[in-house]
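Quarterly update from the structural biology core.
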Amino acid sequence: MIESRKVKNMAYKPGADLCGSASIDRFYFAPERFHPSDVLPSCKSVIALAKKFPSGISNDGENGTEASPFLVADAADLAKVGSGADGWTLGKYYKMTADIDISTTTNWTPIGSNAAPFTGTFDGGGCKITGLSITGSDAYRGLFGYVDSGATVRNAGVSGNIAGSSYVGGIAGRNSGTIENCY
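Predicted structure, tokenized:
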């Protein structure tokens, strides 16, 4: 659920691609007499639905911090980890919320590289990534190409097929950080 303050921010900031609206009963954490229906029972509150949020606003209040990690729920989210898209940079906090099958992704691009290693925290939440496929003879091959010192990957499982010339692994091709409770 989107908090009412985020809806207000979204309504006043350019950049959202609006794609419709829907009536709602009550905003999350809204005080009494906040909604028109509190005064006139026949009135409805309306929220604009967006398929693209303005810069700096996410659908769940996620901002990639330890307190509010980016949530990774599907293959598209996993592909965004460390990409820089929507603020999902290599140094942020991430938390998986579901098992993810990436078997339809041919030749996975590892998260982080020798030139730009992963420096954040990735918590798999006990979930598993299946269908990982990496082909070719490049180095730094795995779900993560290179996990740098200070970075952490934990509580995740990975299965699939990976090929490379050197620094090849399931979780990480090269690790200088912390990998714990992974398989």
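The radius of gyration is 20 Å.
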